[in-house]
Design goal:
heterotetramer, A: 332 residues, alpha/beta, 8 strands, C: alpha/beta, seven-stranded mixed β-sheet, five-stranded mixed β-sheet, 14 helices, binds thiamine diphosphate, binds magnesium ion
Amino acid sequence: MAKQANFDKETYLHFYEQMVHIREFEEECLRAFQRGNHGIGGYLHLYSGEEAIAVGIIGALELDKGDCFIGHYRDHAYALAAGSAPGPVMAEICGKYTGCSKGKGGSMHICDAEKGFYGGYGIVGGNVPIALGLAYAQKYRKQAAVSVCFFGDGSMNQGAFHETLNMCQLYKVPALFVLENNGYAMGTSIERSHANTDLTDRVSSYNMNRKKIDGQNIVTVHEEVKQIVADMKKNPAPFFLECDTYRFHGHGAADEAKQTVVYRTKAEIEEAKANRDPIAIAAELLLENGTLTDALIVKIHDEAVAAAKAAMQFSDDSPVPPAEELLKDVYI
Amino acid sequence: MAKQANFDKETYLHFYEQMVHIREFEEECLRAFQRGNHGIGGYLHLYSGEEAIAVGIIGALELDKGDCFIGHYRDHAYALAAGSAPGPVMAEICGKYTGCSKGKGGSMHICDAEKGFYGGYGIVGGNVPIALGLAYAQKYRKQAAVSVCFFGDGSMNQGAFHETLNMCQLYKVPALFVLENNGYAMGTSIERSHANTDLTDRVSSYNMNRKKIDGQNIVTVHEEVKQIVADMKKNPAPFFLECDTYRFHGHGAADEAKQTVVYRTKAEIEEAKANRDPIAIAAELLLENGTLTDALIVKIHDEAVAAAKAAMQFSDDSPVPPAEELLKDVYI
Amino acid sequence: MAKLRYIDALAQGIREEMRRDESVFLVGEEVGQYQGTLELSKGFLEEFGKLRIVDTPISEVGIIGLGIGAAMAGLRPICEMMRLDFATPAFDQIVQHAAKIRYMFGGQFKVPMVIRGPSGVGLQLSAQHSQAIEATFAHYPGLKVVCPATPADAKGLMLTAIRDDNPVVMVESLRMYMVKPDALEKIQPGLSEVPEGDTGVPFGQANILREGTDVTIVAYSWMAIKALEAANILAKDGIFAEVIDLRTLTPLDMATPLASIKKTHRAVVVQEQWGLYGAAAEVSAQIAERGFYDLDAPVQRVTGAFVPMPYAKNLESLAFANENDIVAAVKRTLGGK
Amino acid sequence: MAKLRYIDALAQGIREEMRRDESVFLVGEEVGQYQGTLELSKGFLEEFGKLRIVDTPISEVGIIGLGIGAAMAGLRPICEMMRLDFATPAFDQIVQHAAKIRYMFGGQFKVPMVIRGPSGVGLQLSAQHSQAIEATFAHYPGLKVVCPATPADAKGLMLTAIRDDNPVVMVESLRMYMVKPDALEKIQPGLSEVPEGDTGVPFGQANILREGTDVTIVAYSWMAIKALEAANILAKDGIFAEVIDLRTLTPLDMATPLASIKKTHRAVVVQEQWGLYGAAAEVSAQIAERGFYDLDAPVQRVTGAFVPMPYAKNLESLAFANENDIVAAVKRTLGGK
Ligand SMILES: Cc1ncc(C[n+]2csc(CCOP(=O)(O)OP(=O)(O)O)c2C)c(N)n1
Ligand SMILES: Cc1ncc(C[n+]2csc(CCOP(=O)(O)OP(=O)(O)O)c2C)c(N)n1
Ligand SMILES: [Mg+2]
Ligand SMILES: [Mg+2]
């Protein structure tokens, strides 16, 4: 795309750093999960390979001016992209009292009210109707703001998705629906689960503005979304944005090994890592126009690794929630 | 349409009779509801104005060869079109033990297992997923048969509808979805409830074969469906058929008066009764080609009125369910 | 004091609070242009406008989701289910989301919303439209479940529900909606009176509807009225029943019934429909667990038949509890031992 | 007899019945090509083929609807919910349709289907994936609710569920899925043994897992195993508890616990998670209502905390009932009057 020649270097250098930090943060999570002595239990869903989406889109929001977002359970990157401190996010994943949800939510339920992050949800499609409400509130208050909803291809087969999109379009609320199409819902490919595999086309059922883009190119993602969000703020209406992407790890840390046996080949994964890594693609663009240097790449990577370890250290040094927390926060 | 010149006279004479009988049957219901001394309580949803759909479509099924159908709560006509005896249908509406559901279901829950009528359901959209199962069973047994699902425009805003259509297309089951688009869901018009008012277009989300037809012309409905069902039996796949129609009475017998105050004009209703009455349209066609005569029209009408009164008499003469029925049929 | 119908008291509560608080709005099917399926919201659209009186498609999941998100964002939505039965398609949004959001995010959010609609048995609406499923919601921590029996509580609990910062399921009795004030006054003078103005009724405080000495009848919603009718019948036989209306299932006030049982030593617990795993089971269990040494006879539970609601009027009337069942149960407990 | 893990017993039940009966099929998410999320259906797709092992989109409403329609048409579908928590989006299909169809159509249809999946608390799955919501289903007439505790019942109740002509909700204990036979044998010899072949376990017959004289512990599912562990601890103090596994919540066999209480005069009722309006409330209520004169002390209820399940391991372990809570409750009832 033409835009890529002249884009704001500082912005993208920052985005590049964020992507690398997110990647290393989650690799640290995975190692900790495998070591098994950091408090991580239950499910751990990693975003590796999809970083350009969270970073490019959340980076286009004015979180201090009322923009907000909501996600599903693959949610670490949303918080980090919004600038939430890595320590409390890691502490949440490890079930510590210093975690963003006091250790009560875990990996699937990260949130940051201050940053307008209304949380990660575990029921497929369950976060989508809530986005309608967030956007309705913005309309109610006549705010020039948008509500972004991140979800996966699997969510589109939940009835909740369809009731919601219809109502958003009827009420013309400023909801931006971001489909992270990584080709699979757990072990089920798009082909095996969607009668119409053109997921953007499915939304014609709601007459909603829509577009399909390459989710691996941070410049494409960010420049497109900047424009879309600006338009939404001028003329409030929902928008459906499909980001074509790929998940490098298993669905969850637990099926890391099983995936290549039952639903996709090692070759397919390697091919994607080689040609569709959003970090490598960004590096190439940024080297090209002189924003990055090889030395800087190494420096950023080392800083990211250090930051991830520091986050884990923060978590390791943190206490578990005190027993009296058990009965708190059920009612206000 | 060309077909109308040469169609089978006997078939259509029978269809005409069925439509008139259904119309008079329901007018008798309405009078009984208003008189209030026949056991009719709760809701009473009349099909008046939509008769060509049930008659033309169910008339195209081979109910003795495994075809079946399921409907929503506006369901009297489905049973009558399939040839269920009017007495037990009326008795059900009046809560009598001789009713098709032993008086336990009432107007919304008519059924006839022998005729392949899997019943009328009261939760909007709730019957739609069940149709997937009926059609899946036909596929499972390799039957050359179809399952017809009747529902209203309001059902398309229930998530259940969307999960179902996607799965039907994925599994290529022989389900025929018949949308009775009468323009309103209770007091809510299509324009106020569907972001995309072309309801057939909405189904492109499922890549399903689909068509929109005039639901007021019995010939159009029947000839189209004959073809569709034949094709479905040759190459099993679901089909979505939108029948454009109009409801002459209120949503339910209870809002007969309120309707013209809050959601549609008397003029609109009168216009429809004058120009879109499926019985009048059929009469015109049948007079044209000599199937009907004015005398025959009067005779059929009188027979229908008599049949309706006989059905009500059957019901009036029937006992209410015995007390011990209360605890029966919960479990088998 | 004004004598009102239950439906008018509900409407008054919503209207007054919407006038007081800009952040309150009503969303549901046919609530606006249609003036409400049962005309509860008659005139609301004209007074408050489209933004605050929101007509929706038949999309309960969307309605509840809209409410949750708007509540998290700081508004106070009232989500109307045309009938509470229609909350079942939205069950996931209610029990997996509205109920859990505050806890699973460590208290960062609150969800101040009301989910309400007419509920309960009768009127020949048959199996899918005639249920009292309040226990289904009351079992989930994070939700409050409120069941007004009288016009005064219909308004008073509505005000409190709207102002509460938690998701509240307001279970309204369809059977009570249209009952004329006179009919209520005949059952007990003052029963239809609704105090003027801003009179919220606190949650978690059972209401002693009638004092008595011989037996304690514990009920809620429509059954509390039936219990009063039973008490009238019993009084003729010189049996004086204390009638307690629980008012709210969560929070549940057991102190009031237990104190009463200390006095009467006998208890009858009444519930409209299905006994098995119903709300009356919890109440009966707590009475026996906590009031064991006060009881002179086993607790009697009066509930409806464990069957889907039949349509035929004669069967239907056998399917739910009524005043005569309550009278019989009271006599059993007095005959007990 | 073979010693099996609970998950393998479940799988054996399904596989054997599918071999016996052509009309049985399995439908759900990842049941086929993925071999089952927890590999319960490993090898099923290869043995039975695509028509009988049906992989689905993430569409629980569609899955249950498919089951209902196919069952009405005479097949015997087994609808797998990846976790029973995910039945909440399909709640309307289950309680408004599957449960009511037979009754509201006057017995013209039957709905022989099984709705099953792993359920219960723990494993740090947090609020939305860690619940024991069986009471939510058991409250609805028309459904049967089955909660196997042992590998033998996992297979035996599965066989009966598939053969039953009513919709059956099979609540499987995720906590029991992977427990090694040896670990069960340590709790009680024979606890992991599964009889060979066609051995359906009848519904509505509670199982006396251990005989005792001093107190009756009534439990089901995983808590029945916890009750055995508690009984082992108590035995060391010379307290002999009778442990009764209810096995099925509907139909509910109260005769067995009531007979036991005639002997022990003391009862403890155990439930995994939320006490308020939970299944243990019904059991406790019936014990006191029907066994009032046999009881020497109030019934003790042992339940989890009334909170959504927290993630942190230390909080989680405080949120559900365990063997020590049961031991403490038993001692309370023995201390009582
Ligand atoms: C209603 C529901 N059904 C099933 C699940 C189990 N589940 C969790 S994630 C998942 C796959 C979702 O895939 P997708 O929406 O594409 O998101 P991705 O994991 O690919 O990011 C499934 C089936 C669930 N959490 N909720
Ligand atoms: C889930 C659900 N929500 C609301 C209702 C109340 N209701 C009954 S019929 C109806 C309108 C349905 O309209 P449509 O589907 O167009 O069918 P029509 O009545 O026009 O034939 C509504 C809102 C219901 N029965 N179920
Ligand atoms: Mg995906
Ligand atoms: Mg309609």
